[in-house]
Amino acid sequence: MTTPEIAFKHVSKRYGSGETEVRALADVDLSIDRGAFVAIMGPSGSGKSTAMNIVGCLDRPSDGEYFFEGIATSTLSRTQLTLLRRHKLGFVFQGFNLLPRTSAVENVELPLVYRGLEAGDRRQRALAALARVGLEGRAGHTPSELSGGQQQRVAIARAIVTDPAVLLADEPTGNLDTRTSLEIMQLMTTLNRVQGITVIMVTHEPDIAAFADRIIRFVDGRIESDRLKSDGALETMA
Amino acid sequence: MLAESLKLALRTIRRNPMRSFLTVLGIVIGVAAVIALVTIGNGTTARVTADIAKLGSNMLFVRPGQFGPGRASTTAKSFNDRDVAAIRDQVNGLRAVAPMAQSSATVIFGGESRSTGVVGTTSGYLSALDWSLSSGRAFLETEERGGRAACIIGETVRTKLFGATDPLGRALRVGNVSCEVIGTLAKKGQSGMGTDQDDTVLMPLRTVQRRITGSSDIGTILVSAQDGVATSKVQGDIERLMRERRGIVASKTDDFSVNDMTQMLETMAGTTQLLTGLLGAVAAVSLLVGGIGIMNIMLVSVTERTREIGIRLAIGALESQVLAQFLVESVVLSLFGGAVGILLGLALAYGATTALSVPFVVSPSIVVIAFAFSALIGVIFGYVPARRAAHLDPIEALRHE
């Protein structure tokens, strides 16, 4: 059996202490294989965002262990976690989170800047990434000159420009209309199927979750259900 | 990476040119003040040094009382004719000895009048100072002895009062004395101390004593040593002589002073340094305030750009890289302030030195120090905001509106 890309072993996360303590995650076990397309669902406060932050190495578990490609992340320093994010992970956010007043291509170049690539090399790879999300010819536009769907494409280009192993998307279609949402999901599906990138996505929309192969539902900090798409119940929803 | 931070910093500064300028205004003023003051000070020192070199170092001024920093001038009795004669007769190696009785008076010729300095002296004054006449003659011995109403006028007095008229032989009214102009002095220009050396009227000592000051006091005795004679030896001889003549016992300090030009320069330099130090302290406070201004704006900037910092941290920027970015930004800001300040300071100093007609001497070291100091201010006052940015929690920062 191969090592799963991502594995939670008895992961808990508590915020605050004493009377005000909040348990965001309670003893969660989870494993996601390389090349999977996973949707994480659940009501707000269910712990799905906390789980995503831990997967993205932006947060650490209070208890338990998070293994990334078999490495126990609790043994890593803050700097090592940053380097792991830099080299293995790509992030797409609900609010796009592009740098304002900065052109599309410069936004996409940003992760490469921190990798220390030469300017020419950076530009070439950023333009290629923009082409992969269908935004050739928009490289010089700033976010305010782009539509919501185009902005999210730029964000996806920024996430994949480093060729990450895992793409983490937090409500990637939350700010988009239905038609644009479908375009973005098709793009993510292509990245997963064609490039083999593991995609983990938080969403509360069932028709968006339906693009994934596997749907994990969180309630009150626990996994309530974990189903593959072939399950009959999900087939009917799709 | 540094080049990237630099590019980013320049872009951020360009986006808010007005804010950036106001941020660095404190630094600009502080640096400009330091540069201007030091440059003007250098020019004045150069001018004074040049003047003294021109005069030669063999001049001695014998004055009643003690002068200089930390020593209050006391009410010591003045010198008289016999003191002058004693120096002339009993001290060896002198080229010239000239008594000076200084006063000021209104001088009138025709419809023009002017308040000017009057010096009662002898022809020795001209040779002691190495001054020459542009026309006419010096005092005759008979004129000096008899206290004749004759005068030699400086260039400023000549042009202001006589204009195109030839002053020789004319009657000039000095106070209430009418005296004949017998000579005019060659133009000397401004002294290092900023006084107009040409705004003067020379008269025989006795004339001034009898008809202007009304006393036989002599304020200063000017002594010029012969070439090749050490001024220190002459100085010692005069001191011994004067102590004896003034009846000062061994346990008492002198109630007069014998200074050469170097000592006068030192006295002046002491005063200048004190002044420069005080002004420098004011400038330092201004730089401190400027630094606080930079810190304030950088803190505002970090808060404004919290989301941006969150994005950078999330996509793989190390804390040290975020720290470097904000530090570079504050250093670029303060260096920009420093550069503007240096240019402004040099411009001010140029204007001031031209107005005071002292040489414009730029000290490269002070320019370098000012520039380096601005960079230091950027680092010191940029560090706290930069560290705050670097230590932001990316999750919180991304949630920030």
From TrEMBL, chain A:
Known InterPro entries for this protein? Answer: AAA+_ATPase, ABC_transporter-like_ATP-bd, ABC_transporter-like_CS, ABC_transpr_LolD-like, MacB-like_ATP-bd, P-loop_NTPase
Keyword 4Fe-4S present in the record's keywords: the answer is no
Q: Name one GO cellular component term.
A: plasma membrane
**Keywords of this entry:** ATP-binding, Cell inner membrane, Cell membrane, Membrane, Nucleotide-binding, Translocase, Transport
Report the domain of life of the source organism. Answer: Bacteria
* Stated family: Belongs to the ABC transporter superfamily. Macrolide exporter (TC 3.A.1.122) family.
The name this protein carries in UniProt is: Putative ABC transport system ATP-binding protein
From TrEMBL, chain B:
Q: Where is the MacB-like periplasmic core domain?
A: 20-240
- Which species is the source of this protein? Kaistia soli DSM 19436
Membrane topology summary: Multi-pass membrane protein
Tell me which domain of life the UniProt entry assigns to the organism this sequence originates from.
Bacteria
What main location does UniProt list? membrane
The record places domain ABC3 transporter permease C-terminal at 281-394
* TM helices/strands, residue ranges: 21-40, 274-302, 323-350, 362-384
Would I find Cell membrane among this entry's keywords?
yes
Arranged from A to Z, the UniProt key words for this protein are: Cell membrane, Membrane, Transmembrane, Transmembrane helix
Q: Which family does it belong to?
A: Belongs to the ABC-4 integral membrane protein family.
Q: Which InterPro entries match?
A: ABC3_permease_C, MacB_PCD, Macrolide_Exporter_MacB
Give the protein's recorded name: Putative ABC transport system permease protein
User: Where is this protein localized, as stated in its record?
Assistant: Cell membrane
Keyword Phosphoprotein: yes or no? Answer: no
Naming one, the record's GO cellular component terms include: plasma membrane
Give the Pfam families listed for this entry: FtsX (PF02687), MacB_PCD (PF12704)
GO-annotated molecular function: transmembrane transporter activity
